[in-house]
Design brief:
Blueprint (H helix, E strand, L loop, with lengths): L8 H4 L2 E5 L4 H5 L2 H10 L4 E7 L14 E5 L8 H17 L4 E4 L4 H9 L4 E6 L6 H6 L2 E4 L8 H7 L19 H11 L6 E4 L11 H13 L4 E3 L5 H12 L7 E3 L6 H9 L3 E5 L2 H8 L4 E5 L4 H4 L6 E5 L26 H12 L1
Parallel strand pairs: 1-2, 1-4, 2-3, 4-5, 5-6, 7-8, 7-10, 8-9, 10-11, 11-12
Helix pairs in contact: 8-11, 9-10, 9-14
Length: 357
């Protein structure tokens, strides 16, 4: 069987599918791939396949033609229902007659879907744990991951485009929202136009800073004359953490809590108009970096090489500069340990004041 001419395919491609099954932040960091493809092939229609719960991250992206999704809640309706919905999705994807499929994921499901599309050009990563005949068969070309340990996730994703030999690639991460999202935020803020957004929570609490330390930063910034908008995810534990922080701040009139009240796109609108964002290693931190909002990002035992905010306009404060941290691969994600507590309040406050000056 003749191998597809990958150097000519990009110029002829009219339909492209990008597949990624991961978390919200991972989806945001795929946007440079989408942006690069659209720049190289402006007339091509670029579709994305993802998990339904992450749709919001790409829902307003101007370069995406169509978003398809696997809803992991399907399995709650029973095996027959799940199989019927997945077969319907597979059939729909095959009918699109994609010219190029880019599998950015490492799951077998994504590889088999890549194969099922029937696209003549199917690119995937040569992942050590997936090396074998079937993984190879699902793709027409596998891209080496040998240097990925030294690359940011954005750069890892972009490396999948190498076989296409595009003239240029664009590594800009893009977060988008719609006008109704901004209108909703404006309504909730009730006339407040200048503010700092602080997102102290993550779904993994080992990534969080102690409530007392965040409260001390809030208090100091309120005394400086700033209005603080506190945000969090909808989870009860996150909202409770925000309550504990807010309760310790004396200047309550300068604190607005929107914890658990915003969609991701509304949160993007809020962050976009803020004077400053302060937060831990989480999706909102990546959103702030993408939106070019001045940002103070607090990191603990995460892989900075992979996950530091890309093209951040601000400062990254790593707990490892103040105390020993465990290997990220050895961390028990359910632990109650607050590794970020090694970061002094004064360090965060000084960074915030520098960016606000």
């Amino acid at each position: 069987m003749k191998r597809p001419d990958l150097t000519l395919s990009p110029h002829k491609a009219s339909r492209i599918l990008v597949i990624k099954f991961r978390h919200h932040g991972d989806m945001l960091l795929t946007t440079p791939v989408i942006r690069s493809l659209k720049a190289a092939m402006p007339d091509a229609k670029i579709d994305v396949l993802l998990y339904e719960e992450t749709r919001a991250m790409l829902a307003c992206h101007p370069d995406i033609n169509q978003i398809y999704a696997i809803d992991r809640r399907w399995k709650k309706q029973g095996v027959r229902y799940q199989l019927a919905r997945e077969w319907q999705l597979l059939s729909t994807l095959r009918k699109q007659q994609y010219d190029i499929v880019l599998n950015l994921a490492d799951q077998w499901r994504s590889a088999l879907i890549t194969l099922f599309t029937g696209a003549p050009v199917r690119l995937g990563f040569n992942i050590p744990k997936r090396r074998g005949v079937l993984w190879q068969h699902c793709h027409t070309r596998l891209v080496s991951t040998d240097n990925h340990q030294h690359l940011h996730t954005v750069q890892q994703n972009l490396s999948l485009l190498d076989p296409l030999q595009l003239e240029t690639t664009d590594d800009t991460v893009g977060m988008y929202y719609a006008e109704p999202d901004l209108q909703r935020v404006t309504t909730l803020l009730k006339g407040v136009e200048k503010y700092i957004v602080i997102q102290p929570t993550s779904r993994w609490f080992f990534k969080c800073w102690r409530e007392e330390k965040f409260a001390a930063v809030l208090q100091a910034l309120c005394e400086d004359g700033h209005t603080i908008v506190l945000t969090s995810g909808p989870d009860d534990k996150e909202r409770e953490m925000v309550k504990k922080i807010s309760a310790q701040v004396l200047s309550q009139e300068h604190v607005i809590s929107l914890a658990g009240q915003l969609t991701l796109n509304q949160l993007a609108a809020l962050i976009d108009k803020a004077d400053l964002f302060i937060g831990v290693d989480s999706v909102p931190m990546h959103m702030a970096a993408a939106l070019k909002t001045p940002c103070v990002a607090l990191f603990g035992p995460s892989k900075l090489t992979f996950w530091r905010p890309w093209q951040v306009k601000g400062e990254v404060i790593w707990a490892g500069d103040f105390a020993p941290l465990p290997d990220p691969d050895a961390v028990d994600t359910s632990t109650g340990e607050r590794y970020l507590d090694a970061i002094p309040v004064e360090t965060v406050l000084a960074a915030a004041r520098r960016l606000l000056a």
